[in-house]
Amino acid sequence: MALEALSKALTGALNRITKSSVVDKETIKEVAKDIQRALLLADVNVQLVLEVTKNIEKRAIEEELPRGISRKEHIVRIVYEEITKFLGETSEKIMLQEPGTPTILLMVGIQGSGKTTTTGKLARHFQKKGFKVGVVCTDTWRPGAYHQLEQYVEPSNIEVFGDPDEKDAIKLAKDGVGHFKEKKYDIIIVDTAGRHKEEKDLIDEMREIADAVHPHDTILVIDGTIGQQAKLQAEAFKNATELGSIIITKLDGSAKGGGALSAVAATGAPVKFIGEGERIENLEPFSPERFVAKLLGFGDLKTLLAKVKEATDEHEFSKKDAQKMMSGKFTLQDMYQQLEMLSKMGPLKQVFQMIPGMGANVPKELVESSEDNLKKYKIIMNSMSKKELKDPKMIHFSRIKRIARGSGTKTDEVKALLTQYDMMKKMMKQMNKRKMGKMPMGNMFKNLNLNE
Ligand SMILES: Nc1nc2c(ncn2[C@@H]2O[C@H](COP(=O)(O)OP(=O)(O)OP(=O)(O)O)[C@@H](O)[C@H]2O)c(=O)[nH]1
Ligand SMILES: [Mg+2]
Fold it and tell me: Nearest 5°: phi and psi at 219?
């Protein structure tokens, strides 16, 4: 596992909460201190550490506890969110060309960073996805470079192009790419020599080979054990290439890996994979969310996040609301709240259609008018008395006129609101008759994917 030491320290910090009988300000401050220490030990930039722990502390003290969530769960969630934030939040993939056009990937990086190993790992990764992948060795510098790559990928039956006797790296690169293009391979990965110790030399050579093979993506391999020093490489690289990916290696067992990851993320350069060991399978697509979840103990966190989501969903549409709505005993205010909530979930028409047994029964006027009218409803309802809001049946014509005048609307608009209320009430009663009322509304919504 990557960053084992950091993971242990972070889970240790969070366990402090389990052990304490009361979670008060003091405990939170202590937990924040523990986290601070853990991040500093992982070589995360001091400024960043202070910022993250300040946020955690502030949120843990000030934020309201969501319903059904314990104080500890709440704090774990905050830690998760704040650490994810400083690792870049989004996850990005290496872009492949359309089928039929081979994708050329160029691996660069300073000496010993893990280019050759990662070339093999990446080839294996894509091979497992069903692509035909070839690797090209252009390293004329390190003795035995070709054999190193060949031995590494041989068990996976990945073809290597190279020639230990050829001394021209540019020629090897061109020939290798040509060879695999001819064979109609999907992905061609070009490994390069790491003879440079400094960022500038590296960039110069990268340009030279890039000019020869026109890669679709240039991938910088950074050794994660250098900690926050990784920033310099990431920055130089980012300035030199418009597009480009980063892979950070050796995050297994490295105490400073957290520093490398966060420093690179801070430059805005996209980390697409991480290396977590010497074996060809030890490559993980990098997703900050999944990574931090693992760091904090994945199983627990997944359940927790689902629970938080459920609690918030329920908060918006409680069982009580649903029962009230279904029993037909709902007031104008209830209607307004329900419509407002439903409209937040997407176009009302679609929302209604997704409720089992409801779709075809929803009057067209109801769906179409609700969306535009929500704002107006609010204004009209502000001119009604509490009694009227509770029991709109008591609103007679003279009263309608007064409400319209008071709210600066037309009598027809007030009437439309009342008609809609009647329709909705009737509809709810009908649903209730069909025993739908037994099904809590909250549960119904849980199965809907409203983003589809
Ligand atoms: N533990 C661990 N070791 C790794 C990882 N990636 C690479 N290594 C090791 O790091 C060393 C250097 O890796 P290479 O792939 O040869 O590095 P390189 O960048 O090709 O080196 P040059 O071609 O000499 O510049 C090897 O011993 C690898 O086994 C990783 O993710 N974890
Ligand atoms: Mg190498």
Answer: -115, 120
